[in-house]
Structure formats: C-alpha cells, structure tokens
Write a structure and sequence with these properties.
mainly alpha; 13 helices; about 70% helix
C-alpha cells in the first residue's frame, strides 16, 4: 500500500475544488493537482502492469484479487472484534465524507458510456439513492449512524478531520468519471468496488453487532445490494465491449488503483483509532 504523493492538505483542497463551481481557474487548479498525483500514479501503474488479454481474463484476475483480500487483515479483525465504541466512531467519522456524498461523483461517467452500459450503471445509481425513497438512500443511512454515535450531521464538519488517505479515495472518482482519458478505468474501478464491499463491510457490520449499535443498516444494506451491483457492473463492461471494443488492461488498472486506495484508507483509519486509545 502506498500513501498519496501530495503535500498535506492538497488532497483536501482538491476535494473542495471537485465539489465547487468549476470556472477556468478552478479547472486549472484541479488539473495541476491531479497531474502530480493521480495522473502520475496511473502512468506508473500502467507501466508496470502486464497486459490483460481478454474480458474473461480480467474477470479471473478480479476474482483472484478479491479472494486474496477476503483472507482478511489484522486491521479488519481489530475493528470487528476488539475496537471500542469510541474507536469505531473514529473510523465512522473518518469515512463520513464518503458516506455523505456516496455515488454523487459517479454521474459524469454516464454520458461517456454507450446506452446499454448506461442503463446498467444507472440501475446501480438508483439503488444508491434509495430508489427515490429518502429513508433508504445510503447517505441517509449514514446520517442515522452518525447521529447514534453523536457525530456531526453536516459535511463541512469533516473537512478538517479527514485524512489524506481517505481524501485520495474520495477524489479518485472525480478524475475517473470526468478527466480520465479512458472510461474503462472507471468501469474497472467501480466493478472492483461493488464486488469487494459485500465481504469488506462484514467487518463494520460485525462491529455494530458486537457494540450494540442499532443503526447498522448502512453496512448491512451493502451486504445485500452490492451483490446485485457487481453483476450490473459486469453487464456494463460487457455492453461497453459490444458497442465500442474494450481494453481489459485498463479495467484491471482501475481495479488495482481502487484496491490500493481504499485499502490504504481503511488500514490508516483503523490504526489511527487504535493508537489514539
């Protein structure tokens, strides 16, 4: 796992820029920050990643990566079985900006896709927003969790307490959906994310059960719905290939990128919570 190659607070600045009105000045600032961070990172990853021959081989490699991650880690075990309520709350706080803006940064990818691939991605997005039911929207579920843990409800309260590792995970989808030269990076990254969460969120769900936290549905809902989403993402990739052809190596690079970023962010968050105790 690697840490973001940007100075302190630059990733926070990038997140704020990504969510602001993007006039020429802001766009230039975003591109400057991304050039030194994610553009360079993807170029390095591309240079050392062997070519993937086909979509079928991509699926095999993704399954191997997920199987390796499902073996678990010390940080996941600690959060699930040993963390105190305060430590768990610290991890929840760390990912609040993600929970409160969930899937909002996916939409710009839709017009970059052929129609049938758009439909598959939109089915994922509709679920993220509770199928139009506010009480079921994933960000609403995160707000319920924050409230139970006595944490703030507004996004601005988390801007100065979120780590660079988490900001890297937050910022990458803005680049993947809007400025990445190839949308296959986005498809591979989101396919990985949707396929990894049903197992990964068992950690948080178990911690909620052990600690008696009632508003655990943000996690338990993902255990169910993302098994559907990972199938939809494979449909999106298949339809993209049928319409435009496909570079499966780019899918794989997207998956590797997300695996690294989210794994680094999670491990760092748990370790900080553990050390603070």
């Amino acid at each position: 796992m690697t840490t973001p190659a940007l100075a302190d607070s630059a990733l926070r600045t990038l997140f704020v820029h990504n969510r602001s009105v993007q006039d020429a000045r802001v766009v230039t600032a975003i591109e400057d920050l991304e050039r030194d961070w994610i553009v360079a990172r993807v170029a390095e990853l591309s240079a050392r990643t062997p070519a993937v021959a086909s979509r079928a081989q991509w699926v095999e490699k993704l399954e191997d990566l997920l199987a390796e991650e499902r073996k678990g880690s010390g940080t996941a075990h600690y959060l699930a079985e040993e963390a105190t309520r305060a430590q768990f709350a610290a991890v929840v706080r760390e990912f609040a900006l993600d929970g409160l803006t969930e899937a909002q940064n996916f939409f710009p990818a839709v017009p970059r896709l052929p129609l049938k691939a758009q439909m598959a991605v939109m089915r994922v997005l509709i679920d993220e927003f509770g199928c139009g039911n506010l009480r079921q929207a994933h960000s609403r579920l995160y707000l319920d969790l924050l409230a139970e843990l006595g944490l703030p409800q507004d996004l601005e309260s988390f801007l100065d307490t979120t780590s660079d590792e988490t900001y890297a995970f937050l910022n990458v989808f803005y680049w993947l959906t809007q400025r990445a030269p190839h949308v296959e990076y986005f498809l591979g990254a989101l396919a990985y994310l949707e396929a990894s969460i049903p197992h990964a969120f068992r950690t948080q769900a178990r911690a909620c059960e052990r600690l008696g936290i009632e508003h655990d549905r943000y996690y338990t809902e993902h255990l169910h719905i993302d098994t559907f989403h990972m199938k939809e993402m494979q449909i999106a990739i298949r339809e993209y290939e049928a319409a435009r052809g496909l570079d499966p190596t780019r899918l794989w690079i997207g998956a590797l990128l997300l695996s690294d970023l989210i794994g680094t962010a999670f491990d760092a968050a748990v370790e900080r919570a553990r050390e603070a105790a």
